[in-house]
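User: Here's a structure from my thesis project, written as structure tokens. My advisor, Dr. K., wants to see whether a designed sequence matches the one we expressed. Can you design one independently, without my sequence as a hint?
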């Protein structure tokens, strides 16, 4: 097994653990519902990284594209948990009309969380496109 596979799986298990720990802290966040979301983001993104690690050898991309794909997977998953946790701590409603209902953070907090969620959205889409390209039937 390629060491990149193992690193992705390690990060998946680590993020899964972070998600579990976040679950223990849920009741202490300014926005408890967003705390639950942060817990779930950690657990689900950890599981996602384990799955990515399991298929990594099947992703056929030029070296540079594969490196970018690896780092977008890590940034997207960790940042998703991190910015959701920030939203729970700050009590922001940025880009979260359901879990943020009735909450509002300071303007700089709302801006930080919005920028973070936007970056995660773009990066995860980029990762998905790259991974799909690398999983196409024709190999590089």
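Assistant: Designed independently from the structure alone:
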């Amino acid at each position: 097994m390629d060491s990149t596979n193992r690193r992705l799986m390690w990060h998946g298990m680590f993020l899964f653990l972070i998600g579990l720990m976040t679950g223990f802290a849920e009741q202490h966040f300014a926005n408890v519902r967003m705390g639950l979301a942060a817990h779930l983001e950690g657990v689900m993104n950890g599981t996602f990284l384990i799955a990515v690690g399991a298929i990594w050898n099947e992703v056929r991309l030029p070296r540079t594209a594969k490196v970018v794909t690896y780092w977008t997977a890590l940034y997207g998953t960790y940042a998703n948990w991190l910015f959701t946790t920030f939203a729970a701590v700050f009590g922001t409603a940025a880009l979260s009309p359901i879990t943020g209902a009735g909450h509002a953070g300071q303007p700089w907090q709302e801006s930080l969380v919005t920028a973070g969620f936007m970056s995660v959205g773009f990066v995860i889409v980029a990762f998905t496109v790259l991974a799909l390209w690398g999983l196409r039937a024709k190999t590089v």
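When you compare it with your expressed construct, this may help: Residues 3-134 form one domain.
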